[in-house]
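Q: Hi! First time doing this. I have a protein sequence and I read that you can turn it into a structure. Is that right? Here it is:
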Amino acid sequence: MMKGTRDAVLKRIQPISIHGQMSWEIVFTHADDPGEQLNAARVGPEAIVGHTLEAGDKIQVEYPRRRRRQGHAPPRLARFCGSA
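A: Yes, that's right. Below is the predicted 3D structure, encoded as structure tokens:
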């Protein structure tokens, strides 16, 4: 399991509602991946507030450290870096 922060390029973003709570599904590729494999994560509104994200924007994705007995931690949007 990887951990740390990686630069990425946003490919798609769409709002979703999970049990009535608004979240965002982001689809991205890692900036250093020549094959441009698509990855996805669901993030809460706190990761997006104050930013207008569009496909092509540069973002950073954080892979939190794994916690014992809780399985793997999903990736999350670490920060918005601005337009491409």
